Amino acid sequence: MDNTIAIAQIVVSVILMILILLQQRGTALGSAFGQDGGSAYTSQRGIQKHIFWATIATAGLFLVLAVVNLIKQ
């Protein structure tokens, strides 16, 4: 039980890093994989919007796990 929260926090942190690296300011997701994304950035659409909200939720979960880990010690 002692290691469960620490392991969960490590897993969530790796997921959070992946989600942050998938986000690119000013271009579409396709440019991360070699496609030309254009130069105009208007709003988040499709998968970018889902990645954005997943990043926020994962960051919130990471903070909750950090506080629980801090209180538990």
Protein architecture, described:
0% of the residues are buried. The mean pLDDT is 82. This protein has helices at residues 2-22, 47-72. The longest helix is centred in the last third of the chain and has 26 residues, at 47-72. The protein is mainly alpha-helical and 73 residues long.
Q: Helix content range of the residues, please?
A: 55-70%
Spans of at least 5 consecutive residues with low confidence:
none
Mean pLDDT: 82
Question: What's the helix count?
Answer: 2
Q: Give the overall form.
A: elongated
Quick description:
This protein has 73 residues and is mainly alpha-helical.
Which helices and strands occur, and which strands form pairs?
Blueprint: H1 2-22, H2 47-72
Helix pairs in contact: 1-2
Offer a few descriptive terms:
mainly alpha; 73 residues
